[in-house]
Write a structure and sequence with these properties.
The chain has 206 residues and is mainly α. It is built from 8 helices and no strands. It is elongated and about 60 Å long.
Length: 206
């Protein structure tokens, strides 16, 4: 038997103990099409278990990657099939007019790949990523490629770190999260600048 999972990972021990790989796949899958679930946390916990020899790190990585890609694609289908009608019917109540939505579609079509890849590491965006891409009409093949890239980087980072540092993962994770705030702020500023530039260009068009 391995040592108990550290800190905030501890509540996931019974789930992983009973269901193992199934738990990893299910939790990551549902989180990625918008259901509140501890996808990132269970990935860390599974990596710790793998480092202790209770799970295979290769199996954890493959299952988490597959679940992440499938989950986001379910979100994409939800957004693609129902999101546009919802926005056009109710968007005006939150100042999202058809004209503004068209501008958002054009912007996402131009910069969506970067957003889809980076969103994987941002809480909140990770869960809504596929739905937003589907709603704004991003081409599915383009979404699939960048989504798979983001999933590979996300799974590779957290599964590998948890596997290598074991019980120290919570301290390492907290440290990375602290610096991630600066990265997110920089990304938000860049995104805002791109949006402003796009809107200015559209206004200048005859």
């Amino acid at each position: 038997m391995s040592a108990p999972l550290p800190g905030p990972l501890a509540p996931l021990a019974p789930l992983l103990g009973h269901y193992g790989y199934w738990a990893v796949g299910a939790v990551v899958l549902v989180e990625d099409f918008g259901v509140p679930a501890p996808g990132e946390t269970i990935l860390l916990a599974a990596g710790v278990y793998a480092g202790a020899g209770r799970l295979s790190i290769v199996a954890v990585a493959v299952i988490a990657f597959t679940a992440a890609v499938v989950g986001d694609n379910i979100g994409y289908l939800i957004g693609r099939s129902g999101g546009r009608a919802f926005v056009h019917r109710w968007g005006r109540y939150v100042f999202l007019t058809p004209k503004r939505f068209a501008a958002a579609e054009a912007f996402f079509g131009r910069h969506g790949g970067k957003i889809v890849t980076v969103a994987r590491f941002i809480e909140g965006l990770r869960q809504a990523n596929g739905i937003i891409a589907g709603t704004t009409g991003m081409r599915w093949r383009r979404f699939l490629a960048f989504n798979a890239l983001g999933a590979a980087l996300w799974v590779g980072l957290w599964a590998t770190l948890a596997y290598l540092v074991g019980d120290h993962i919570t301290a390492v994770y907290d440290e990375i999260q602290r610096y991630q705030l600066y990265v997110v702020a920089a990304f938000a500023a860049l995104l805002a600048a791109l949006v402003v530039r796009h809107l200015v260009r559209r206004r200048r068009e005859p």
